[in-house]
Amino acid sequence: TSYHVVFYDVDYLNSTTSWHFNPCGYSMVVEAENFVFNSEYITTTRFNDTYKGRQPVVLDWAIGNVTCEAARRNMSSYACRTGNTVCVDSPNGLGYLCNCSSGYQGNPYLSNGCTDVNECEHSPSPCPKSATCQNIVGGYQCSCPFGGNFSKETNSCTNGLIVLRMYTFTGVIIGLSCGIGVLFIALVSTLLIRRWNQGIKIRVRKAHFRRNKCLVLEQLISSDESAMHSTKIFSLDELEKATDNFDSARILGLGGHGTVYKGILSDQRVVAIKKSKMVDQIEIDQFINELAIMSQINHRNVVKLFGCCLESEVPLLVYEFISNGTLSEILHGDNLSSRISLTWDDRIRIASEASSALAYLHSAASIPIFHRDVKSANILLTDNVSVKVADFGASRSISIDETRVVTAVQGTFGYLDPEYYHTGQLTEKSDVYSFGVIIVELLTRKKSIFLDSHGENKNLCHFFVQRQQDNTIMEIVDVQVLEEGTERQIDEMASLAMACLKHRGEERPTMKEVELRLQSMRGKMVMKRNHELERHGEAVTLLPSNYSNYFSTSFGAANSSNQCVTRCCTMERELVSWTDLPR
Prior knowledge:
alpha+beta; Laminin; 6-stranded mixed beta sheet; 3-stranded antiparallel beta sheet; 14 helices
């Protein structure tokens, strides 16, 4: 290896054939005959200073007279011990030389004299044009475009299109396979979970069905065993579909024992479905009791039970849908402008039909039934304002030989019989008291518990009785009643309410007596209207179809209409006097 070195200070030692110089801190002797003229110059100084001049030379030299392997054994004199250097044996005999490692440049004889070379800054770039050069310590890297491979042998990038297509195709296949696999696993898992959940749901529903059916049968056997055969059993799926899975938008109202939903069955029948608000044994007993009671009732003024569902925790009851809401909503709706106008005739008829339904429960049903929660909110009205008595969850059926039964007090404040409240003894007269409150509501259009002009809560029953005793009843009667009814009719209605609200149950009339009195009032009102129409030469309105039949059956009226009217008026006078007689 030839090194082009320029020496500026060369000391003459002992002859003209050798010089001593100190390159990079190392002393060595250079023989004169090894100098070869070249394009560089070296300054020489002889000892006797007789010759001065500048001579171009090329210096070929080496360190020591040992090889690299021998030199490494004596690290104290080894010249290539700095980093990033390599030892090379001299090609011209003994000795060795130090070179910077590949990718480094500088003076290998100095500490940290070899520094990294940034090959990427060289021009031309060591990488092919299509590749990107990236410098690394001690070298460089060539990065080919996506899909290509760098070849050091040819210093070029291989065509990556085929590779790219192959990788793309492989990626697509792998992606599709993974996607299909994941989708298949998810589908299978979903089906298995759904089948598992359906299995659990079916088992739970079967358990509920068995339990509820046993409770229903036990209740019905003690009352009317044949009633179960006339009650349809609905599936839970059918009722969920009918109510959009019991959507809150389908709620018709919240009763004392459950929430009522509007539903449309598969045969397009519109129904009301009653569902318990909570799940406990008391609610289950209430629903079973209502189902047993309703299975025995068949009256035109009692809401009709279509069937039940026994697959839920608490049985669901399916009733006919009554579109016009409750009497309470019509009488006491918050928006006065939206209230339905109930004429005086309508109010008498509503009271008459409701009393007819309660009288049927007390005396005409196969087993006497006490409703125990008679109130205006449980009287439903159809499109033609006909009455449908509802909500028999608290009702009790008793044997014929019983007249009263001791129970836990249950009902609604404002309608609750005070005697029943204090003694716990339930009788048919408890329903009579509650019905008396409804009559007062029809007269005054006030709630059973209302706010007076001073903002204080008042009990309508006590308020009405006080007004009746003070002979100021007309001051609290609804304006429409005052306009349409006569004073005698209003007094008669108020007297009937007073009779029903007697503190002692034995002093109150029976529900049958109340029904007769109300039907008599209706009959007189119809006859009065007919008389007025006859005077003006207009068509005569006939009595209600059931009116004359009822009295002819009950009291043996004569065949002629005149005799019937006479008998009706006589009975009416007798009934009017009942409330004034001591009992």
